[in-house]
Design brief:
By secondary structure, the chain is of the alpha+beta class. The chain is built from three helices and three strands; from the N terminus they run ααβββα.
Length: about 110
């Protein structure tokens, strides 16, 4: 019975080509009744358009679990390193990676 009460550990394999990660400074989110689509993009200074570097598609239930997990991790980050300041109303700093908030919500 003690073994049944133990929480199973999830084993995750990260392949070498995935382990280096992909840089993204912009995320676009769209949804339907059955899916949430997350497009991660990179927009470099001087470029006219962003390039989608990765797309993740998940169920709305998994998207909500991701939201809760991100919130938990941001709270832990801010506890250790201080509050993350978004400065939404301030003019973008030179070289900043603030997403274009004037886009239509849900546009991907």
């Amino acid at each position: 019975m003690a073994n049944e009460q133990k929480q199973q550990q999830l084993q995750v394999e990260v392949k070498p080509e995935v382990s280096k990660g992909t840089y993204s400074n912009l995320a676009l989110i769209a949804h339907s009744p059955s899916e949430v689509v997350l497009d991660f993009a990179s927009m470099l200074p001087g470029m006219q358009k962003a390039e989608v570097v990765s797309r993740v598609i998940m169920s709305p239930e998994h998207a909500k679990r991701l939201l809760l997990a991100l919130n938990d991790n941001i709270q832990k980050y801010e506890k250790n390193f201080g509050e993350i300041n978004l400065q939404r109303n301030a003019a973008p700093r030179q070289g900043s990676t603030i997403a274009p908030f004037n886009m239509n919500p849900g546009e991907a």
